[in-house]
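Saturday, quiet lab. Running sequence design on the C-alpha cells for the scaffold JK sent over.
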C-alpha cells in the first residue's frame, strides 16, 4: 500500500506549525544557556586546532536537556593525574532560534564543535564535541533542531573576555591558582630554577632523608 495521497510533505504552513510548537516546548521545558563562540587566534593548518583560542562573546539562548536524569559520562574518576570530572550531556536547540540569536551576530549557520556553553544551574562550562545537524528523518521535509553532545570544559590557558562575570571568572580562578604557586629561586645565581630544580626544591619540604636506618649494618648516628 502506498502513502496516503492526501498528506503531503514540504507544505510551508505545516512546517511552520511544527517549528513553532518545537520552539514552545523548548522554551517551556528547557533551560537558559549561554552560547560562547570560539575565536581562533593562530590556527594550526596541519592539525586543525588552535592552542591560544579566545572567547569574547556570549549569547543567551534556551535549550532542552535530553539527559534529564543527570549528567552522563564517567563522572568523577581518580587517575594518576588526580581527580578528573568527565560529565557529559546532550542538548537540543531550535535551528530558527539559533539563527535569530547567534547566527545574525556571528555569521555561523549552525552551532560549531569547539564552542562553549555555560550552564547556570551547575555553574559549569561545557565544550561542544559533536553537532548533529543533518538528521535524515526530517519531519515534513524540514530540519527544526540541532542536537549538541557536550563534555565538561577543561581550561587550557584560553582568554575569556565575554563581559559576563560568571563566565570570565573561569579564567580568573585558574589564574589565581597559578599565581599562588611559589617558583623557587636558585640561591647561587638568583635565577628562576627549571622544572627539575623546582621538584627537587619542593620535595625537601615534604620528605626528610637525613635520618639513617637504625637496623642497617652501618653505624647509626
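Result came back. Writing it out in full:
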Amino acid at each position: 500500500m502506498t502513502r496516503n495521497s492526501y498528506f503531503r510533505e514540504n507544505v510551508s504552513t505545516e512546517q511552520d506549525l511544527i517549528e513553532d510548537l518545537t520552539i514552545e516546548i523548548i522554551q517551556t521545558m528547557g533551560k537558559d544557556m549561554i552560547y560562547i563562540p570560539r575565536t581562533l587566534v593562530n590556527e594550526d593548518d596541519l592539525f586543525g586546532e588552535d592552542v591560544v583560542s579566545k572567547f569574547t562573546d556570549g549569547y543567551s539562548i534556551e535549550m532542552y536537556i535530553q539527559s534529564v536524569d543527570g549528567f552522563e559520562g564517567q563522572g568523577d574518576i581518580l587517575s594518576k593525574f588526580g581527580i578528573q570530572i568527565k560529565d557529559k550531556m546532550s542538548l537540543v536547540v531550535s535551528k530558527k532560534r539559533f539563527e535569530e540569536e547567534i547566527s545574525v551576530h556571528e555569521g555561523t549557520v549552525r552551532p560549531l564543535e569547539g564552542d562553549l556553553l555555560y550552564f547556570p544551574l551547575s555553574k559549569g562550562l561545557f565544550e561542544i564535541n559533536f553537532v548533529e545537524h543533518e538528521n535524515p528523518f526530517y519531519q515534513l521535509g524540514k530540519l527544526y533542531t540541532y542536537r549538541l553532545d557536550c563534555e565538561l570544559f577543561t581550561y587550557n590557558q584560553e582568554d575569556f573576555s565575554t563581559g559576563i562575570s560568571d563566565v570570565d571568572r573561569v579564567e580568573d580562578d585558574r589564574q589565581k591558582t597559578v599565581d599562588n604557586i611559589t617558583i623557587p629561586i636558585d640561591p647561587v645565581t638568583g635565577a628562576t630554577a627549571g622544572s627539575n630544580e623546582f621538584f627537587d626544591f619542593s620535595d625537601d619540604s615534604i620528605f626528610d632523608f637525613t635520618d639513617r636506618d637504625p637496623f642497617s649494618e652501618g653505624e647509626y648516628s
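Notes for JK: Residues 12-163 form one domain. The chain has four helices and nine strands. Ask whether to fix the surface positions before the next round.
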